[in-house]
Amino acid sequence: MASAFRLQCHCILIFLAALKGETRYLEARGAGEDEPFLLLSADLKRELSGRQLYHRALRCIDMLSVEGQFTFTAEQPQLHCAAFFIGDPEELITIDYDFVHIDCQGGDFLKVFDGWILKGEKFPSSLDHPLPTSERYIDFCDSGNIRRSIRSSQNVAMIFFRIHEPGNGFTFTIKKNANLFPCNVISQTPTGRFTMVIPHQHRNCSFSIIYPVVIKISDLILGHLNSLHLKKPSTGCAGVGDFVELLGGTGLDPSKMFPLADLCQSFHGSAQMKIGCDNTVLRMVSSGKHINRVSFEYHQLDQYELENRKENSIEEFCFPSI
After folding, report:
1. DSSP count for the chain of H helices, then E strands
2. 267 pairs with which residues across the strands?
3. Phi, psi of 154 (to 5 degrees)
4. What is the pLDDT of residue 309?
5. What is the pLDDT of residues 230-254, one digit of tens each?
6. What is the Cα gyration radius of the chain?
7. At a CB cut-off of 8 Å and minimum separation 6, what does 52 contact?
8. Rounded to an integer, what distance in angstroms lies between the CA atom of residue 211 and that of residue 131?
9. C-alpha distances in Å from residue 206, one per residue of 8, 84, 200, 203, 268
């Protein structure tokens, strides 16, 4: 995807991309035409750091990556609205309600979801999140003053809201908190590096990159001792309590993605794979018996690599190549 095209994307494209299965088009603008706020702009983050609390109006379809106070006031009935929040991998999102004036009895609602959900697909998946799906929704109309501050379990969260009466609305403040052991992460950028550590915990953790990428694993410690297995029905790491798998697909939910490769033995060195999917996920499964760790780096496939994807093709839209 050309950078010029990415810069022209607005938040509405989040939903349009989801409907088309093109979830890699995630970089979206987070303000109006008179406020050129780019969702993933490092320059903006540096500019805002050290300043007073950032304020702006919230739109019906929006995405936020910075701390601040945001207000939504309905100018007309707004029945299908959502705002997505994202932080750095080592951050959690806290949503504090400052003011809420909605008509719960009249059909309005304001709900927080712990994670992201697009076209029915969730991140983290139900297999990887510590809470059952029903408990990941926090409805203001049900909890009211009991839950005026809500913290996510990972670096992404979102709200859904519906408001019928013009003039009604709400104000909330977004804060970010440090997460010492990040588990489930959506990357804000198509290039980066990360180390995932699961210290004696029985849990599964997924790192999602919403781009076709080259991913290079440089260090893997699983508690038991160089192998990379391309997925086949009769092979892989089945029965092993601790392993890493690479997944690819066009949706958001790792449990619905195509399994590409397993790593089930520790190694120090390099294992590299090209994955031409809209969404690439590195997922670690941990039994809780060991301290498991994986270090990796990734960068987006360039246009030439996307157009010449002939090695070890699994599907036309999604190919692995070592």
Report:
1. 5, 23
2. 220
3. -155, -170
4. 56
5. 554 445 676 778 999 999 999 999 9
6. 20
7. none
8. 27
9. 29, 19, 17, 10, 21
Chain centroid offset of residue 205 CA:
12
Nearest-angstrom CA–CA distance, 176 and 86:
10
Provide the pLDDT confidence category of residue 313 given band limits of 50, 70 and 90. very low
At residue 231, the pLDDT reads 54
Residue 140 DSSP code: H
DSSP code per residue over 198-217 = EES---EEEEEESS-EEEEE
Residue 239's pLDDT is 72
**Phi and psi for 43 in degrees, rounded to 5?**
-60, -40
Kindly give the pairing relationship between strand 68-73 and strand 55-57.
parallel
The two structure tokens encoding residue 237: 């790491």
Q: How many residues does the chain have?
A: 322
Token representation of residue 98: 């400052």
What is the distance between the alpha carbons of residues 284 and 268, in angstroms, rounded to a whole number?
17
In angstroms, rounded to a whole number, what is the distance separating the alpha carbons of residues 177 and 111?
21
Report the greatest alpha carbon distance in the chain: 63
Summarised one tens digit per residue, pLDDT across range 25-80 is 333 333 333 332 334 445 545 455 556 889 999 999 999 999 999 999 999 999 99
**51, 88, 188, 189 from 155: Cα distances, Å:** 23, 6, 10, 13
Contacts of residue 301, defined as CB under 8 A and 6 or more positions apart, other chains included, come to 211, 212, 213, 214, 274, 276
**Which residues, 6 or more positions from 277, have their beta carbon under 8 angstroms from its beta carbon?**
212, 248, 249, 250, 257, 258, 317, 318
Among 220, 193, 203, 191, which Cα is nearest to 286's? Answer: 203
